[in-house]
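Support request, priority: normal
Reporter: lab tech (M.K.)
Component: structure prediction queue

Hi team, I submitted a job for Nucleoside deaminase from Georgenia alba yesterday, and the status page still shows it as pending. I've pasted the exact input below so you can check whether something in the sequence is tripping the parser. The sequence length should be 154 residues. Please let me know if I need to resubmit or if it's stuck on your end.
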Amino acid sequence: MTRQQVSDDAEALAVALAEARAGRAEGGVPIGAALVVDGEVLAVGRNKRVQEASPILHGETDCLANAGRLPASVYARATMVTTLSPCDMCTGAILLYGIPRVVIGENRTFLGGEHLLRTRGVEVVVLEDRDCIELMREFVAAEPELWNEDIGEE
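Reply from support: The job had stalled in the queue. We restarted it manually and it finished. Here are the results:
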């Protein structure tokens, strides 16, 4: 990925949303993420549970893996941008690496660990982005079994 500059949360979310759409086009769950530091997108990721037959490749964890090993000082300046509220696993990864800020496209479809993030001092911004909401609504309606598998429900 060629690194790119973003000037605000909306631009960063557009990068994550492009990843979500790419994942959906591959037959996967449409959740994307971007790791932004000092206005630069260091890495992107998307949910690849279907594509890679992986139980742990969510958008945020794929993004962190794509970023590679980074010093704590970089994570301390980072924002994790994700199209959907982060699940417990992704919330844990955000906390583990000390990422101080999370921008969420939407949390209507799924409400993840936002409360835990806030109680641990993470700034959480929910944009309620219409495109993110619509993408997830369409996906859940079309693939309820896959969605339930992704969130650990029957």
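The helical segments are 9-25, 49-52, 59-67, 72-75, 88-96, 114-119, 130-142, 144-150. Strands lie at 4-5, 32-37, 40-46, 78-84, 101-106, 123-126. Let us know if anything else looks off. Ticket resolved.
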